[in-house]
Design brief:
This protein has 218 residues and is of the alpha+beta class. The chain is 47% helix and 11% strand. The chain is built from seven helices and four strands; from the N terminus they run βββααβααααα.
């Protein structure tokens, strides 16, 4: 069992993200570093269904288990609400065994998202100002984002219709295949994401919206 969880802290002007580097998708934010770290610990139980098949997943997580190994400046995207900065160790190729492990965790995040969609009503509870997407709009948003993420890995893809589950699955398989290699495809026309960051960002986005649906069900 791992005794520590290595964390990358991304510090924006108004929002800070704490990202567990070896656990793609386990990233939470707060108004300060301390708040972000506390949120990360608080979401360990929700991340467990994704990670629990891994022998290194700790059964109990506290603040003392978190080790901040790097702090990086955030961006406007950070303040908007998405982890955007790449850590120093995330650049470059990832060894294939670790890349395959990360790809598996991304697949588990997708599976959890699909499970949540299947039991979520079409209309979700609105926020205090009446905002928030309903189920089908969230699904469309996630599929559209994943098509964009695929291009950031060097893939040439067409965004599938959200209801075309076969096409969505084909897109996901293409993404997972690249993640499993440990490095993006060559694309001199586009600045590509490092694979370690891509796995983290993709899994975070999927899980963030899965948890949103869980929280907004009546």
């Amino acid at each position: 069992m791992a005794s520590t969880i290595r964390v990358l802290v991304e510090q924006g002007r108004r929002r800070t993200f704490a990202n567990a580097l070896t656990w793609p998708g386990w990233s939470r934010s707060g108004r300060s570093e301390q708040a972000a770290l506390e949120a990360l610990v608080g979401y360990a139980v929700r991340y467990a269904p994704v990670a629990s098949a891994d022998a290194d997943w700790p059964q109990d997580v506290g603040l003392a288990d978190l080790v901040v190994v790097e702090r990086v400046p955030g961006t406007a995207t950070t303040d908007f609400g998405a982890p955007d900065a790449v850590g120093a160790e995330e650049y470059g190729p990832v060894p294939v065994p670790e890349a395959e492990r990360m790809a598996l965790l991304v697949r588990k995040a997708w599976a959890l998202f699909d499970e949540v969609v299947a039991v979520t009503p079409p209309v979700l509870r609105k926020g205090p100002r009446g905002g928030g997407r309903d189920r089908e709009a969230i699904l469309a948003h996630v599929v559209g984002a994943e098509a964009a993420y695929a291009r950031c890995l060097g893939l040439h893809v067409v965004e599938p219709e959200p209801e075309d589950r076969a096409a969505v699955q084909q897109l996901r398989e293409a993404i997972a295949a690249v993640l499993s290699t440990g490095m993006p495809r060559d694309n001199p026309r586009r600045r590509l994401w490092p694979v370690a960051y891509a796995a983290r960002r993709i899994a975070w986005h999927v899980l963030d919206h899965a948890w949103e649906m869980e929280d907004r069900r009546d």
